[in-house]
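thread from #wetlab-drylab

HS: before we spend reagent money on co-crystallization trials with glutamine, can we at least see a predicted complex? here's what I'd submit
DV: go for it
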Amino acid sequence: MKLKICWMYHDLMDLYGDKGNIQVLKTRCEKRGIECVVDTCTLDEEKTLADYDLLFIGGGADREQGLLVNDLLKRRDAIQEAMDQGSFILLICGGYQLFGQYYLDGDGQKIEGLKFFDYYTEAASRSDRCIGNIAVEAALDNERIIAVGFENHGGQTKGVNQPFGKVLKGHGNTYQSAFEGFYNGQVLGTYMHGPLLPKNPEIADFILRKALAKRHGECTLEPLNDMLEHKAKEVMLKRLGL
Ligand code: GLN
């Protein structure tokens, strides 16, 4: 089997270990004998996004979001085409915000979003910045899981009609939100850095299955030994009082 990943804006959007998500996907493929190709795509680079099974954008500060937004908006049709052809999309924090209507940053500067979804993001007052560890109860289609991560965002994302999960500890989409992220079956946006996939191997395999489905149809993945990952999650949940 083969998986092709496009890591968009790798040189601008990579906060709190987001690149670890790519490393995990690659390693989990290699351990199963699945060929995994990772290409990057940054400003002004020509890439046919629909050729990829998975598009990934990590988190980034307001400055980086502002730097890449024009390039991203030019790729709107290409991203739509990738979605139409069944590519899966994983977005962390700043990347997640950019798929909504807009992001109004702390200086009042408005960064237009791709407007694929209804949600929009506005900066909170300084005291309401969402920082810290987070635990979320989420559904990976039919499988219920507890995910853990680290969030650090000023942006408050509102109008999310399909959240990824329920916040058990931490903030989520807004400072006092009961919900975290966005998931519509094909696009998963989340505030969980940490990075997300090393801490939550069940999400990593879920995304691999979703992305592999584009080229190979529904497939089952050989289980890997995730004892260490599970132990680490247990420790974190205990620290969070869960
Ligand atoms: N700049 C955005 C915010 O503060 C995103 C930050 C991030 O990606 N961690 O909301």
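DV: Helices lie at 19-30, 62-74, 76-84, 94-97, 196-199, 201-216, 227-239.
HS: ok that's useful, forwarding to the group
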